[in-house]
Design a protein that fits this description.
136 residues; alpha+beta; 3 helices; 9 strands; 21% helix
Length: 136
């Protein structure tokens, strides 16, 4: 198991990024041009962000249903990881241009279930990553 001090450190360790646009999934492997482009914009979006306790929890069936609407990004890992004493093998985020903070939903043992992480973008929004993911 890989342990990250904070969730921001976990994103660049993903082996694959999957972008979901209105239910259509596109995967990008580490080392590929699109992966690197997405990761660069994602990391820029997170600059100065703060991890905070999340109020929300994920219910698998509802999360999977929501992932068929709008823009989502999934970070997929080749092994179990942990941050803040919560484990995961995937992370999912709903991406909306106007969001100034967002839940990071954990996937473990085949389900998006349980407590989430929350990232506050501290006065910034997700417009750049949203535009990047919409134009791939």
């Amino acid at each position: 198991m890989v342990i990250f001090e904070n969730i921001q450190q976990a994103f660049p360790a993903a082996e694959e990024i999957v972008v979901c646009r209105d239910g259509k999934r596109s995967g990008y492997q580490r080392g590929g041009k699109e992966y690197e482009e997405i990761m660069a914009v994602w990391q820029a979006t997170l600059t100065g962000s703060r991890q905070m306790p999340a109020f929300g929890v994920s219910i698998h069936d509802l999360t999977v249903k929501e992932m068929t609407k709008g823009v989502w990004i999934e970070f997929i890992y080749n092994q179990r990881c942990e941050s803040w004493e919560m484990d995961f093998d995937r992370l999912a985020v709903n991406v909306s241009a106007s969001f100034t903070g967002f839940n990071v939903i954990r996937h473990v043992d085949g389900q998006y279930l349980g407590r989430c992480y929350y990232l506050d973008l501290v006065g910034r929004n997700m417009s750049e990553i949203y535009d990047c993911l919409k134009t791939l």
